[in-house]
Amino acid sequence: MPHASANRPGSVFRSNAASRSFSQVMALSRFLVLMGNATITGKVIEASNRPFNPEKAARYNAKSFTGTKTMGVLLSVLSDLHKSGIKVSDIAAQYWCERQMELRARHGAKITNEIRKGAQIHGELEDQVNVPMFLQPKSYPDYMYKQLYTSHAALVSLRENGKGREIQMYGSIGGYRLVGRIDMLQMSGGKVVIWEDKTKANGKPPSEAQLHTNRIQLLVYRRMLDDLVSGDYTERNFTRAYSTEKMVLTAEFVRQLKALGVPDPEMDIGRIAGRLFTEFRGLGSVSDSMRLRYLQQSTGNEIQIYSFDYNKEETQGIVKYVLGYWNGERESNPVPESEKWKCEWCEFFGDKCKVWWGQRG
Ligand code: SF4
Questions:
Q1: Distance linking the first and last C-alpha atoms of the chain
Q2: Is the CB of 335 under 6 A from ligand 1?
Q3: Is the pTM of this model over 0.85?
Q4: Which of 58, 141, 176, 261 has fewest C-beta within 10 Å?
């Protein structure tokens, strides 16, 4: 029977007690001491009865806590999942099912036809508003340059034509690298409006749960964009976080850039990053109103557009909640009982995750 839980903004959580790291156990102990009977803002919190296993904790500790002490703490969960940073889509996925997000990071996500088709539609939309650029990166620095270059071109397109698509954003959350890619920025009434596109195979409007997850993504995008526009996250932070001054482009990629007409001094990651971040700071006012658009997968036709307002306090709550996981203060949460219907669609159900397997209908 599943037990143990943590809370996330807007929901009551229950989870099974799977393997727990030393830091998680310590954090949970501190938490329980602080909370007593543990009722927070009306949400019921229950603790696991699973006994602390010092051997297991020591193994986890030895495996995960590498590097300097400070960096060890910061990198523990990420390095355990072989990740170097957090994506905004990870954060949104934590709100669908955090356990599923973790399992996908650990075992790989299944690339379905639906995902392939969605990527194709995104590519077609991108070509409609950006100048298509055929750059084929050969290394990580090449790839990084391409992201910066195409995102810069998209922001120039926004400034000149009122629309730019597929804009990569860099930022920070709790000291971790954070990356996100906005589907579209559009000028409306003198303000920049964030758009996110989602494709659906069945052509039906999204469920409440899908809307909730997708809305989380938009809120975090907006927070990142605020940091970029205000200069709270600049090319200096970026250069430090990614050590870009050590990056060298491949000769083949340089040849491609030459063919595109990129001048020699511009073939430098620091230089193109500077251009992109300057463009972000010049964006002006960002609208509090954001758009979520659902498209029919086979045709690309619009199903429905939703409008949401930014809520800074709610976004702070989201960041606090998700960091609990990334900081190793708690294990990943599976879905609560009220959302166990999601398990029927999950590739790990009954295999790597049996939380609700015994209670399937
Ligand atoms: S089976 Fe259910 S609880 Fe487990 S990872 Fe999948 S969706 Fe989450």
A1: 15
A2: yes
A3: no
A4: 261
User: Beta-carbon neighbour count of residue 151 at 10 Å?
Assistant: 26
Tell me what the pLDDT averaged over the chain comes to. Answer: 80
Within a domain: 70: yes
Residue whose entry in the numeric block shows the structure tokens 């203060």? 329
No. of helices (H) and no. of strands (E), the chain: 11, 8
In a domain? residue 167: yes
Q: How confident is the model at residue 7 (pLDDT cuts 50, 70, 90)?
A: low
Beta bridge partners of 294: 198, 304
Q: Are residues 296 and 344 in the same domain?
A: no
Q: How far is the CA of 136 from the centre of ligand 1 (A)?
A: 37
What is the average per-residue pLDDT within 62-91? 66
Asked whether residue 39 is domain-assigned, the answer is yes
* 210 and 68 within one domain: no
Name the pLDDT band for 279 (thresholds 50, 70, 90): very high
Q: How far is the CA of 152 from the centre of ligand 1 (A)?
A: 38
* DSSP of 244-291: GGG----HHHHHHHHHHT--GGG--HHHHHHHHHHHHHT--PBPSEEE
Which pLDDT score, from 0 to 100, does residue 119 have?
64
Examine the domain organization and report whether 221 and 178 are in the same domain: yes
With 70 as the cut, is the pLDDT of residue 5 above it?
A: no
State the distance from the centre of ligand 1 to the C-alpha of 97, rounded, in angstroms. 6
Question: Do 346 and 308 belong to one domain?
Answer: no
Is the CB–ligand 1 distance for residue 342 below 6 Å? Answer: yes
Is 2's C-beta closer than 6 angstroms to any atom of ligand 1?
Answer: no
Total structural domains in the chain? 2
Q: Are 224 and 177 in contact (CB under 8 A)?
A: no
What spacing in Å lies between the alpha carbon of 201 and ligand 1's midpoint?
Answer: 22
Residue span of the structural domain in which 228 resides: 113-316
Percent of the chain whose predicted confidence (pLDDT) is above 70: 73
pLDDT at 44: 21
Residue bearing the CA closest to ligand 1, atom 4: 353
